[in-house]
Amino acid sequence: MSQNTINTALRWIILTGIFIIPFVPLIVSPSMFFPFITGKNFTFRILVEIVFAVWLVLMYRDASYRPKFSWMFAAIAGFIGVMTFADLFGENPIKSIWSNFERMEGLVALLHLGAYAIVAGTTLRTEYLWGVFAHTSLGASLIVGSYAALQLVGSVATHQGSRLDATLGNASYLAVYMLFHIFIAAFLWARQAERPWAKWVYAPIILFETFILYHTATRGTILGLLGGTLVAALLVSIFGRDTPRVRKIAVGFIAAVVLIVGSFLAVKDAQFVKDSPVLSRFASISLEERTTQSRFIIWGMAFEGFKEHPILGWGQENFNIVFNKFFKPVLYKQEPWFDRAHNVFLDWLTAGGALGLLSYLSLFGAALWVIWRVGALSVVERSILTGLLAAYFAHNFFVFDNIVSYILFFSFLGYMTSVGHRVRAAETDATIIEPPSHVASSIVASIVIASLMFSIYFINIRGVLAAQTLLRAISQQETVDGNFALFKKATSYHYATQEVREQLLRFASDVGRANIPQETKNEILTYAVNEMAKQIQIQPNDTRLLLFYGSFMDQLGQREQAIELLTEARRTSPGKQLVWIGLGNTYLNQGDYETMIEVFREGYELETTNQRMHLAYAIGAIYADRRDIEKELLTEDFETYYIWRDAVVNAYASQKRFPELVAIWEKRVSAQPDNAQYNLSLGAAYAQNGEFRKAIGQIQKTIELNPDFKETGEYYISELRAGRLP
User: Based on the domain organization, do 82 and 40 belong to the same domain?
Assistant: First the structure.
């Protein structure tokens, strides 16, 4: 077989892999943990590893496929290089490199994305090939959009309420996916503008995908679309002197956008706006909005983290450490465990420090350089690509990236690399390099194939098996022994160990309360304790792990170790009242009421509007018989909340505070007079308080509400009439 034939075959393998990648967003893997994330990521990584391996062989055999210097190539390499150092010397290198199943980012993801961009940039070497690739991606987006349309009409279920998410599982992920393809369709339209059929093909696609984007109700992305299209229109209106017709359209578009935005602001308080799930989200945007205020606070926390590690940051996947360390108690209404700043630029600033953010921004800068100073593009094409960058840039201020947006962005960077390579090749003389010998090529191919097999197994297959096994383990379709065996198997893959061990801890917690042989129970509990101890050694400053592990040890009755872990959790996140509650409850269970009250008091004073913290402090006061504190806390404003908490009932019952129990059950029965269980509980409280006549009346009411209770109820009544507690 000739050298050229082999090279052609290698090139076609690469092209096949690259052209499969646009269909990755269609993948959902219900057999794996985090089905919308894991399947897409593992498929993408395996495809990249294959095409990269084949590209290495082709590059060795044919010098024309070797990357040439360009600012785009340098920016990609620089960004990945900086983040490599940041991850290796960060807070938790293992997590920074491997990430977890929920995100599947980290250094491993960056290396794959960089390899993909370079391979695509050096293999798709003509505008024709990039055009075919763009149309392929656009075709895949229509399939995804059609699935979202089925969700809109109710034929297929959504996964985020009324917001469309298609096969991506998250509305914001679908939004940015549509955003990219709207601009891709516009770019292809600009390329085919002289053809009569173009507007009948691309315009409907743009309208359809804008419609889908709108129904994701992702405000940041929709604003990004408006901003990006305005940027593109402004650039055409300024520089499009050679295209007067398009220039007029651009000016008209600018006027239309200004009119639409102005009209919306004028009617944002109208009823039809309030009734619209999407428009109402935009109408609610203000500096006083809770989500907006929370976002600003979290951004401030991210900046605090940057100031502590300003050069190379904390490493990827460590924002949770920053979030917990600088946690503001006022955020208690938000979800407790953020792992992203919800701002891509602050995420990179936190993960990679100043160098990380600058190297990330250099990707945009190098792309703009290629668009405006290097690439042989028309003004309209340049304007559309710049608008895409502006839209994506704006989107990134409010949302974080995912594998789908990463693929699209690095595809774009690959295109920029290709444009830069073509121009560079045209400016320099071709270098003649003697093709390698057959023996040398065979040796290189053998080494590459062996490395490929190694990477596919250790980077991907282990992960796939772990994700599948973990999902089976938590499904609880097996016996307890069967589920335990699956957890041990999932642990043995040493992949995403934090998620595996957290799920193992939940399983062990359930087993601890289950009616199973004590020997089996002890084996499971011991295994879970040992595995979590290993995870704590890897991530000693992870508040979430310390809290979960400490609470688990409290459940096992290992109070001293629980207090040690929870005290450490408090050190890593002094502002998180959830940790103070866990520590206070452990002292309560230990019977150390004096320390418990002090812990609850300090935690409560961090943010007195937190009802959960308020309740914990009040319950602690009941157990400690601190009626002064109890009286101060159980105010009328708090009454509606606390009377419905069973923990309050249990506290009063344990302290034999029967008058208070009667008062609580009377309020519950008053609110739900037909609730048989509430009536029975009120009767029991009356009986314990010595009010037998009232107790008999409540039991009779219970029998009326629940005739099946008659036999038992009449026995209780007979006992009470005899002057005995049943």
Answer: no
